[in-house]
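ARCHIVE CARD
Drawer: 12
Card no.: 0347
Subject: one protein chain, sequence and derived structure
Cross-reference: see card 0346
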Amino acid sequence: MSFPGEFAIGGRVVGPGHPTYVIAEAGANHNRDLDVARRLIDVAVEAGADAVKFQTYSGATMYSTKTPKFEYLKDVTDLTPTELLEDISLPRAWQPLLADYARERGIDFFSTPFDHAAVGELAALGVPVLKIASFELVDLGLIRAAAATGRPLLISTGMATLGEIEEALTAAREGGAPAVGLLQCTSLYPAPADAMNLSAMATMRTAFGVPVGLSDHSLGIAVPIAAAALGAAVIEKHYTLDRTMTGPDHAFALEPGELRAMVAGIRDARAALGDGRKAGPAEAERGEMFTLARRSLIAARAIPAGTEVTADMIVTKRPGFGIKPKDLDHVVGRVAKVDIDEDDILVWDMF
């Protein structure tokens, strides 16, 4: 069984030829404040995102207590990974409240499960899709459990080889997932632009035949807009109410105005892709630009009636509704049957 080249998330079809599905990644930026979490949903709605996504985990089920501290967080916290993740985790009792609030606001709600209990909790909420994080791509048991819910999966592929991605897809297939999308990702926080490797989206699309996109940790909005221009079916991006808030993910996240600008840029970039055909003027070009701004043959000087036309009597200028420049050789040698003034636009009835 191969996975389909497109699939639905909620009411939206995701895949080639469809608008990019934009996920506003709230992640842990709720700071364990329910009002902040609700406001994050509002911001995602106001930005025009298709979905808002949180993360469901606990420190004790994600990290061994003997895990060394992360160097990149040394200026943010003195906590161990276990302590930090426990400290910033989304209270699971909030999930039904946030799901209901998102539904009221008309935006898809889902989360990234990091343990088997989270998979069951999110499935019970009726989320339209489950997201597997890059670090969990090698946890084939978790992927099978998520797939067994019957929901499509989005799998981030940071650090992964094609072989590991294939193993994850096999696990998803064995678990019964109806569809899978793969997200290119660079697992650095923030990720420099020159490490993003957006071209890997095309590699995965060719290799696995499923919708591909981007899970983005870069700074700013240039990279996700570039991904949309390359045909990304899905893009997710971290955002926050304020980058100065305390927490590990605020500093590289977008603020509300930037999220709006990113979504608008993604929509424009995807619309600009077009259908790839080159068959004359676009519909929007069929007007003044086509008739007045192209070139045609123009009289370089007065040509009295009865004069045999020579090449030096003709120049090419705008507008474009006269004889086409490519037909110059068919005009030279003809005889003018009317008086032609300098700068007249030449048409066939004159000869």
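Annotation on reverse: The two ends are 69 Å apart (CA to CA). The chain has twelve helices and twelve strands.
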